[in-house]
Amino acid sequence: MNNSNIQIFRSKDGGPEIDVRLENETVWLNQYQIEELFQTNRTSINKHILKIYKTGELEENSTCAFFAQVQCEGKRNIKRNIKYYNLDVIIAVGYRVNSIRGTEFRIWANRILRDYLVKGYAINEIRIKQQVEQLRELQKSVKILGEIVEHKELSKSEGVALLQVISDYAYALDLLDQYDYQRLSVEKTSKTEIFRLTYEDAVAKIQMVRERFGNSNLFGNEKDDSFKSSISTIYQTFEGVDLYPSIEEKAANLLYFVTKNHSFTDGNKRIAAMLFLYFLERNGALYRPDGTKRIADNALVALTLMIAISKPDEKETLIKVIVNLINKNN
Q1: What's the whole-model pTM score?
Q2: Which class for 201: exposed (0-12), middle (13-18), buried (19 or more C-beta within 10 A)?
Q3: Which of 146, 177, 176, 150 lies closest to 163, judged by CA?
């Protein structure tokens, strides 16, 4: 066990309660506690322990350990290393001084250990499953990146941005030991929405971009009603609950839908990126507290390219990538 736990042993004969330390898949008591457990003097306990080690019945290095313990001495708290002995030593002593109490303690300790080991196994099994899922998410992202490279000759800045995206995403996964383990999920998002994007507002922004940057009339020319659908989809609900409850989830899906639906004769990716930034900015989620952008321009280019080249079954992975890159952790 990585973390120590404390359990209380109560004997059937009404003896004193003893705080028992659980660590490294066994239980530990110091000499004072062993004395209290078997109701004998510490000199006798120490004599039995020395004999147990001297005869080779048990190995000292593997059955005793020092644990830090804070003790109050006068007005000061003093931290001392106290020598503890594991269950093997406790039972060996118990057979020598009080076999009934020793047997009772052994039964209790084994039951406690079994419960902790079963729980520990279950926790580890869940953690392993989470890590496998995280690895799959990362593999999908790498696969998407490879497909982008195959389909498009990237500029230096686009290539750097792609590498930065996967680097940031890998960090967010915390797959390596030096990182904290964290399941990839939608979290640390902004729930309070202060701006709601409408179709009319989006069309006005597209017109403004067309005029400002001198794009042709084909830029932003709607081929069908799919753009209107992209806007309304991010506000869909089920039984009164938003399907995309946070600002970041709405923004990520807006970028995805506008990019993938190819609603315009020209400018699909540029429009998607522009509206993505506009939506985040209006909702106060584009910038960090220090004024820097949560997502760099090149990273946005990379994400838009990833979406454009991705397959439909990769949508969930891409949405998680985007949310993790623009949530409050960044």
Answers
A1: 0.49
A2: middle
A3: 146
What is the C-alpha separation between 254 and 256, in angstroms, rounded? 5
In the block, which residue shows the tokens 């147990």?
Answer: 52
CA separation for the pair 114, 111 (Å, rounded): 5
Alpha carbon 204 to its chain's center:
40
Dihedral sign computed on CA atoms, order 162, 165, 168, 173? negative
pLDDT digits (tens, 9 = 90+) for 45-88: 889 999 999 998 889 988 988 887 766 776 777 788 888 998 88
Assess contact for 275 and 304: CB atoms under 8 A.
no
Contacts of 71 (CB under 8 A, 6+ apart): 77, 78, 79, 80
Q: Which residue, 216, 300, 298, 301, is CA-closest to 264? A: 216
Question: What are the tokens at 21?
Answer: 């330390």
Give the whole-angstrom CA distance, residue 45 versus residue 209. Answer: 85
Q: What is the pLDDT of residues 256-307, one digit of tens each?
A: 999 999 999 998 999 999 999 999 999 998 888 888 888 877 778 778 888 8
Q: What are phi and psi of 119, to 5 degrees?
A: -65, -40
Q: Let me know: does 294 contact 287? Beta carbons within 8 Å.
A: yes
User: Residue 189: phi, psi to the nearest 5?
Assistant: -100, 170
Residue 127 is encoded by which pair of tokens? 């953690």
